[in-house]
Amino acid sequence: MRPVRHSLLKKIRKDAESAYASASGGTARARFVKSQIYGSGKHQDACADRTASAPALPERIGAAAEPVGLVPHFAQVCSASDTPINNMGENLANADVADDVDTWASISEEDLGEVSLMMTDSGKIKTVMVRRPSETQACIIDWINFTVLEDTFFKTARQTLVADDQIIEEASRQFEKIFGFGITEKRDRGMNFYRESWVLGDGMGFVCFGGQRATMLVTLSGQGCQNAVAGWEKRLFHFLTKVAMRPSVSRIDLAHDDIEGAYLSVDWAYDQYALGGYTQKAGGRPPNIERIGNWTKPTGKGRTLTIGLRSSSKFCRFYEKGRKEGDKSSPWCRCEVEFKNTNTIIQFDVLLNPTDFFAAAYPCFSNFVQVETPQRMEVKVKTAQITVDACIEVTKHQFGKYIRVFRELWGDKKALDLICNEADDYWPKRMKPLTSDATSGPTPVHKQAPVPIPSFMQFITTVPCFGLNGENGFA
Length: 475
Prior knowledge:
Elements: H1 6-24, H2 28-37, E1 49-51, E2 60-62, E3 75-76, E4 117-120, E5 125-128, E6 140-149, H3 151-157, H4 164-179, E7 183-186, E8 196-200, E9 205-209, E10 215-220, H5 222-227, H6 232-243, E11 248-258, H7 266-274, E12 289-292, E13 304-307, E14 314-319, H8 321-325, E15 333-340, E16 344-345, H9 354-359, H10 376-419, E17 464-465, E18 473-474
Parallel strand pairs: 5-16
Antiparallel strand pairs: 1-2, 3-4, 4-5, 6-10, 6-11, 7-8, 8-9, 9-10, 11-15, 12-13, 13-14, 14-15, 17-18
Helix pairs in contact: 1-2, 3-4
C-alpha cells in the first residue's frame, strides 16, 4: 500500500473545510467550527468517548463535555474549543461549571445568546439552553412536553408488558405519583402523529402512544401545571433522570406574572423592541415581532405581543391575561417564553431552576429577576375570582330575566331544581380549573374496574399459535 503524501492530506482537509464553508453560509469562524465538528481538522485526543449502558439508543458522550452536566441522554458530543468564537459575552464556564471546562458559544441562527453546541445521533447540531443564576423565583412552569421509551414502564412494573392497555395502566400509576392524577380515558383519535391518545386527569393534559418508535409523549398543560400536587417538578426531575429510559423534554413554557400591572405591560414590552431588549448581541438580527388585538383603541378583550417565530426554538408572548380571562379592566399582564427542542437541547435542570433559564432568554428579562413572581396558588385564586365574576355576568346577561321570572312563579328552590343540569359531568369547562385537584376528577384507568370476561371465554389462557411449527389453533 503506497503511503499518502502530506500535500495530498492537506488538500483533502482543505477541500472538506471549503465544502462545509460553502454549505454553512455563516461567518469564517463559524464555518471553521462547523468543519471541526464534522471531523475536518479534529484533534484525536478530543474525542475520548464512552458508550452508555442503556438498552435503547446507545449514548456517545464527549469526555470533556461530560462534567458540564449539560449532555442529554441522546446527545453525541466532541470536545469544545478552548476560546469563545464570538463576542456575545462570557461563556457558560461561570454557571456552576469548573473553570477548566471548555464550552461552545452560539452560532445558532436562533440568536439564543451564549450557548453550548451538541451533535445528536442523527448528526444535527443543536444548542444548549443558557442559564444565568438567580436568587429569586421569577417564573413558573406553565407547560411541558416530554417523551420516554415504553420500556420505562417495563422497568417500573418489573415485568414485560404485552398489551398497550397494560403500558397505559402502568404509566397512569406512575403519573399519579408524580402529578397527583393519572390517565383517565381514551380519546377517539390520535394526536401529534401518534396512533392513540388519552386524557391526563380531568383535562390536565394528554398522553400519546403508538406508532412513534416505541415512545410515549406526555403533555402537561397550563391547567395541569397549576393543579398538580405541589412538588411535582422535583418528582418529575427524578423520574426523568433516574427512572425513565431515553427521556427528552420537547417543549417547556416559563411564565412570569405581574398581577397588579406595576411594572409589566404589553406597551412596555413593545418599547423594549426598539431598545434592543430582545437582541442578544450588538448589531445582531432582531427577532420577528407581531401585535395581536386592537392596539389603536383597546376594547378590553386583551392585547398580545409576540416575539420570534412560532416554529422556532424560542418564542415569547406578552399578553393581558386578566382581560383574557374576562375582566376588561384588569391590569394583570403575563410574559411567557416557550422553548422547543427544534434546534435546542432542553435540560432537565429547568424543572428545578426555571428562573435561571428564563432570565437568560432575553436581555430585558433582567428586570424580572429582581422581583418574585406570584405563587401558583395566588395565580389560581386570582384566576378563579375573575372567572367566577365573568361567568356570573354572562349568566345574568343571557338568562337573568328568565331566572327572575322563574323565582316569582315557583320560588327559589323549585326554580333552581327546574333549570339545573342533571348530567354527572355538570361542571362547565371554563370553571373546571376552579375545583380540579388531586382528589377530584374522573377515576384513573389503573383504578378502574377491569372489563368482565364472559364465562364461555375464560378457558382461553394462552396466545393463539400460527405458523410453520404449529396448526391454526391455540398453543
